[in-house]
Amino acid sequence: MQTDLRGRDMITTQEWTDDEIWTVLDIAFELKRKRALGEPHAVLRDKVLTMLFFYSSTRTRASFEAGMAQLGGHAMFIESRTTQIAHGDTAKEIGEILGRYSDGIAIRNVDWEQGNRYIREVAEASRVPVLNMQCDFYHPFQVLADLLTIIENFGRNLRGKTINISWAYTSSYQKPLSVPQSLVLLMTRFGMNVRLTRPPEYQLMPEIIEQATENAHKSRGSFEVLDDFDDGFTGADIVYPKSWGASLTTTDDAESAAIGQKYANWICDEQRMGLAAKHAIYMHCLPADRGIEVADAVIDGSHSRVYDEAENRMHAQKAVMALTMR
Ligand code: CP
Does pTM top 0.90 for this prediction? Predict the structure, then answer.
């Protein structure tokens, strides 16, 4: 267990060692246990988290706010559009100034080829830890919550388990690459067989694929890329089909939507779930496009773990805040 994580940024799990990730998981389970028993755990009394959102949220905002209150502190909600950022406040100024008011700065900025850069610029200028609430490249707290959920279902030894991280169709909007990219980066570190299943136009960033390949090699697991929706499901223990945009093929939303229509049958329905292992669990970070990305019978069915994932967001975030913002 690592006990010296005070001041550390969480921008991607890839920048935290295996030991540090296990520390987060262990503390998250401990804080979840304490909450279940009603045991007080106000380890961040009088501390303030500033949350700066450039993009909408349900779970992230609510779980950070609730988590910070349970830790005895306060979470301050700021939307970029109600700030002076549009009138000139720079990332450096935001880091300097918000870092002087608070004990942690959390940011969501998913603008393609801007979000991660912005968060890193704030972190560079900030005297307090910066937490990535989702950028264009990564969604670290989502995948930490997902890993907690997987461990709750399959135990701590995940070696040999097969997870299928798959693209699925949507007609609503072009979603960021951050969830699938963070999933392949984290899940390849535990000896699992990790599948990335996607149509050819829905590539992830080449450096992410390289890092995931290296992670799988180091953990003596495997990492393969498939392009057939059904093959991805076959025999999998964990299925995680969700949509993302064709950002590496086109930055034009209309063109991306037109490409997606070619794969409108990539919906996770009961027939697809039937290809997975009998005990398979269905995961999704939410929001999901019901009837398009996933059938109601699956997301509301016995394989689904989506509400546990959403709950575990709070426990994972509390663990990282407690460790970094002391
Ligand atoms: N999964 C997730 O990040 O949800 P929100 O966009 O609602 O925060």
Answer: yes
